[in-house]
């Protein structure tokens, strides 16, 4: 049965293609709204169609779009997608993604210069044909040339979260093949990198050929790249490459260790084996003569034989974990189960999909103890942000709604916009009266680093601010983060009792692992928040926690894991205690 995610992607693509045809903006918006509805839906569209339900009951889904979805669920292509693809060269979708291009310019490049792909765009820039176009100029041309490179870099990797459904499905299918003893994922996916180049699977089986065949015959496979006795590589219809390797049970741990990587971590382990007069490879840890296998069935066995404690996969990047494993001082990494609070969530008071009561129930259903409602402040008009009066009314609504989720502590908050000069978009008195203030930068991302740093510092020093939301503004594979002095911001955050967010949305994961690590090293605290715009978004927490683990964070570093009393003290900027003592 077709999942919601590809359906949403296709609706989005129709919107993008229509925009390139200069279609009515409202029509473009309609497809995008429907895409978002489908992506955020708790139920599968396919099962709704199967049950004969009326798709036009979904917000933003009219008759036309419902018909497209039904056709697609029943195995056809969406007619509107075929039509739109007919009208616009597919390569233009890459061209719009280049920073400094956008739909209007992409259309001009296409119509005036015949640019229909990234390659053609690059050639046009190199040959200096772009600067003479109306509305372009030399500066734009240079920017486009650099942008092409960035898009190429982004294309090579995909967001880990976007590979998750494929990985879960393949593991489930392969584990069910008769004779398969074990099947696991390795590589960057297992290490929890925010993006992955490809997916690496390992299988232990009595009948490896059966497992290989099951992969080759999987309905998501577009093309078999290669298939031998030990390894099969396939390309899925969504473009993801998957490598499946067969290993013997006695070497499973050594193989899992080797193919999990990272390469840098492996190099350190191999060196350590050599220092001990042994040899480490994907088949095991061996005596120097290669005759006797010392360890190999489990990873733990290999680490133990190297006098190391077990290193969680998220830390295997040669960023100090080998030394800490030697001294027995590896961090006790935070887990999803440690999390009690979400400090950043939206409702339909601004641009969220669900009403207040629905969000509160959804949070309680997921076992959260605390949920902060942080709709947008007034500056971001697109989001239907709230001004002072609306926020005061919402406060009453929150008080009235508390009963729907009796076990849940609901905090009154806001996501206030950091203006260009670092002021916030709501008055101090109002902000002081809220339980939680998330301050986020959404505009003017291109200020020079000095100005940007001053701007963010001003927000961090504001006495009412508790959380700096998605601090760098990066969008994975779409936009680099802002240029600013992270170290100065982190130090100020530590000083002023402001937590830096790890925004768990798979498009953001911001701060990333390296920055979060630096933040905690400087004494700051982290808040892992979902920034939920729909109830299903509350489940995105796990992606943020993976990044927190990669940053080496323990529960104590993450304010959402604290008791409600300790969290409240932090938010009130009282001297911060600990849960332990
Ligand atoms: P990716 O796929 O680019 O996101 O990153 P990885 O880490 O999954 O890399 P991949 O798929 O090329 O290989 C999986 C793991 O196999 C890698 O993390 C370490 C191990 N590996 C692969 N090639 C080598 C190698 O030449 N030397 C060493 N030491 N390890 C390797
Ligand atoms: Ca890989
Ligand atoms: Ca690979
Ligand atoms: Zn938000």
The CATH homologous superfamily of the largest domain is termed Metal-dependent hydrolases
CATH topology group of the largest domain: TIM Barrel
The largest sheet has its strands arranged as: 11-12-13-14-15-16-17
Any low-confidence stretches, pLDDT <50, length ≥5? none
Tell me, rounded to a whole number, the average pLDDT.
94
Give the count of structural domains: 4
Major β-sheet annotation:
7 strands, parallel
Q: What would you call the shape? A: globular
Count of distinct strands? 17
**Radius of gyration, rounded?**
26 Å
**Helical content, roughly?**
40-55%
Distance between the termini: 52 Å
> Could you say which small molecules are bound to this protein?
2'-deoxyguanosine-5'-triphosphate, calcium ion, zinc ion
CATH structural class of the largest domain: Alpha Beta
Q: Look at the helices and sheets and give the structural class.
A: alpha/beta
Strand fraction band? 5-15%
Q: How many helices does DSSP assign? A: 24
- Give the CATH architecture of the largest domain: Alpha-Beta Barrel
